[in-house]
Amino acid sequence: MAATQTLDKAHTVKSRAGTNRYVRDFILNKYLYIMMVPVLAYYAIFHYAPMYGALIAFKDYSPMKGILGSDWVGLQNFHDFFGSYYFWRILKNTIIISLYSLIFEFPAPIVLALLINEVRSKAFKRVAQTITYMPYFISLVVICGIITDFTNADGIINRLFMTMGYDGQAMLQKPELFRPIYILSEIWQRIGWESIIYIAALMSIDQEQYEAARMDGASRWKQILHITLPGIMPTIAIMFILRMGNLLNVGFEKIILLYNPVTYDTADVISSFVYRKGLLEFGWSYSSAVGLFNSLINLVLLISANYISRKVNESSLW
Amino acid sequence: MHLTISTTYMEGQRMKKVLATTMAVMMMGTLIACSSQTDSKASSGDSQSSPAAATTYPIKTDKTLTYWGELNGNLTGVKTAHSEVPFFQDWQKKTGVPLKFTAPATGQAKEALNVMLASGDLPDMIEYNFQSDFPGGPEKAIKDGYILKLNDLIDKYAPNLKKYLKEHPDVDKLVKTDNGSYYAFPFIRGDEYLQVFQGPIIRKDWLDELGLPVPETIDEWTTTLRAFKEKKGAAAPLSFISKPRFFNESYNGAFLGAFGVNRNFYIENNEIKFGPAESGFKDYLNQFHQWYQEGLLDKNIATVDTKALDGGLASGATGASIGNAGGGIGKWQPLVQAKDAKANLVAAPYPVLKKGDIAKFGQKASPFDTGGMVAVTSKSKDPVLAVKLLDYGYSEEGHMFFNFGTEGVSYQMENGYPKYTDLLMKNPDKLAPAQTISMYARGSYNGPFVQDKRYAEQFFVLQTQRDAIDVWKKTEADKYGLPPLTPTPEESSEYAKIMNDINTLVDEMTLKIILGNEPVSSFDSYVAKMKSLKLDRAIEIQKAALDRFNKR
């Protein structure tokens, strides 16, 4: 009884004066707020403060003059980038590689999770999961070394083809093969790791639903379609939105470890271009401008994906 | 003006600001700097040899200087840090200056320097190729305030280097910029014999077995490579490193020289030309495409790195390549011999089209080799001490130390000839001479000193190595090659922008045509693209830089 009274009181206080409400809320939940401080500080210091450095995209940055002391050049760096001879090519490649990985790489862990979920033997499940997520822990440099060796003219993959009567050829020297190699190795490396979250989501589906469906005579396929998939849909949607926010972030490390001038046509992306400009040619301002452009596109994509998801799916980030 | 500087130093660090301003003023206008220099020369003409200028080593100091530089590749796997290398330990003892070293990961000096410059936290000295690997060149590095213009400091505190440059005006012309600024303590190849060290290398034992001569013309190369493939079962008869750029070593014109071009700018009839845009380059592409199709060129050519090439030679898949006398023949001879006791690698001359011709291009380093130079930074705590330390390498004592190491340990004097000891040449730990010499001296690579011919005479253990130099030096590289040019800071970023795009295009064109992704006829459209990327403007900038060089 007393508790309800205080609650009522709090309610009336809230509706009476706005500021009081916040003070009260703070007093009631002060430990929660204190716990938030480190997180907020982390974001402020490591995520928001460095944004001030993005200023150099509009300057002719020289470290000796500092960020503020460098001369303004306005949109010159952006002009240079959009007018660059390779602009359309790297934009096209970035988008294509991103789309490929969205189409082929994104669903792969979902399929794996569903398959593992359908397996009855517990031991097999565990072994399969461990084996598939192992490659995730191998260093990228090693992975790329393996890929280079395997795809050589006398590499293991070519030997396989040769037994079937094909001619061996250095696959990394074929522009048309670069994207498949990139995407397939990406799937191979990440599929197990990324399926973990879906497997976790699968665990939370109520087993009674399956029983009920079985009683109604639903086949396994129908069960997947009508219970399992809808059950993990919110997870898929969130993963998809997060993915959209990174769409144009094709990492440069793997690209520069695998490409060569013959495959620039299909392999050179925004980030590898930024790497060459910024790190190898000391074009700090120029590469910041390119990076800023990249982030802007990602932000737009993220917001639109979120919007669509909210409309269609009723699950969204905010 | 000069007096002020020296006294402020002596007074201590409190007056550093005065110095900084003075230096800034001096850098402000080259005209002013130049005239003040001539003034000082005129007024203190004979005071250069005055006792004030000479430094007695070891210097007494309690300051520790910081030094940033790459650890030489020869030491990879032997030592992990400068402080563990006897040479760098002794260098501190001999000069009396304690040093703290920082080293970027081998092969990543450029990225690491970039990050360091951006941080603004600079050491006292930086060992880096400011001539060709610093975007914008040395003048820009000075203008942006990273490194000091050393003219004044060299005048006053580096009598040994000054003396050498005075005695060698041709070298002096190379080591400064168009404006006359000295920007680093240079690595100088003290003899013509040291300037040539790279060229085609071939399996002589295979040639003898097949009854073939050492190939001289492109046609003979075709015959030879074909025989290697058919009769010796070589899967990749001719191979070379293509990381980071296709056919890395061809920048100096190996094989391309037969077709009258190289892969860079060169001078012909007083005109500057860009090799990849000349018609000779098309013939070269055509030839290499044929070789590739016939399987005479490594099938993985676009991805071959050092490891792959070493492996190819060792296994007998490859019978010819391009390499150095030391790092090529010297490294590969034991590898090929391990599999085949008769195996023997020799140098082949730079290929030509017609027998008896001399190749138009080939490797020939300038006496001023741009690697290994050391600059003093604008943030240095004590530039004078740094300059005195760096000047040691050009003194008589320092010359012996840098080239041969410490007497009694790494060399013995025999009839006035410094002979490397067995510790280096027949190392008990089975290290190669290239590695051991790099432990005790810098003669086998580079640094702030004048390289001595007597190092190479001993370093090239094999007769084939010594012969190689004579075979490779027969080119016309001197006539057609450009000296190390420095663009102005203003032109340099424009030039860099143009050439970056063009070089990407050249790499793509070369590989696509050779591998057959595009027909040889597409060469002309590539040249048109180069023109649209303002190749002509780049040539103009080079021409202007050459004119300025000639006026130095």
Determine the N-to-C terminus distance of chain B. 26 Å
Spatial order of the strands forming the largest sheet of chain A: 1-2
Low-confidence stretches of chain A: none
Which of globular, elongated, flat, extended, rod-shaped describes the shape of chain A?
flat
Total number of strands of chain A: 2
Order of helices and strands of chain A: HHHEHEHHHHHHHHHHHHH
What's the number of helices of chain A?
A: 17
Query: What structural class do you assign from the helix and strand content of chain A?
Result: mainly alpha
Task: Report the uncertain regions of chain B.
Answer: 1-52
Q: Main β-sheet of chain B: number of strands, strand sense, barrel status?
A: 6 strands, mixed
Strand content of chain A: under 5%
Estimated share of beta-strand residues of chain B: 5-15%
Q: Tell me how many strands of chain B there are.
A: 13
Report the mean per-residue pLDDT of chain B as an integer: 86
Name the overall outline of chain B.
globular
Mean pLDDT rating of chain A: 85
Helix fraction of chain B? Answer: 40-55%
Estimated structural class of chain B: alpha/beta
Oligomer: heterodimer
How much helix, percentage-wise, in residues of chain A? over 70%
Describe the structure.
Chain A has 318 residues and is mainly alpha-helical. Chain A has helices at residues 2-16, 18-28, 30-48, 66-69, 76-82, 87-105, 107-118, 122-133, 140-151, 156-163, 175-203, 207-215, 220-245, 252-258, 264-267, 270-280, 284-313; strands at residues 59-60, 71-72. Chain B is α/β, with parallel strands linked by helices and 552 residues long. In chain B, strand 11 and strand 12 (417-420) form a beta hairpin. Chain B starts with a helix and ends with a helix. Residues 1-52 of chain B have low confidence and may be disordered. The interface between A and B is medium-sized, with 33 and 36 residues.
